[in-house]
Design goal:
Number of strands: 0
Largest sheet: none
CATH topology: Arc Repressor Mutant, subunit A
Number of helices: 4
Helix content: over 70%
Number of domains: 1
Shape: elongated
Distance between the termini: 34 Å
Radius of gyration: 13 Å
């Protein structure tokens, strides 16, 4: 399985929010159900810009 970017993950989660069944999305993108639900727990409700901002904040915290 290839590594998905945060943008791709958010797009997949948005498809699920639009009503596409999780099983269908997992098959389409070659991911496991557990991966989908981990992503949903971690990134659910976020936009790509939110994730980038969070990553930047974390990098700043770790660099000090």
């Amino acid at each position: 399985m290839k590594k998905m970017t945060e943008h791709q993950i958010v797009a997949i989660l948005k498809e699920a929010e639009a009503g596409i069944p999780v099983k269908e999305l997992c098959r389409k993108y070659g991911i496991g159900n557990s991966t989908f639900y981990k992503w949903r727990d971690k990134y659910g409700g976020m936009e790509t810009s939110d994730i980038k901002r969070l990553n930047k904040s974390l990098r700043l915290l770790l660099s000090t």
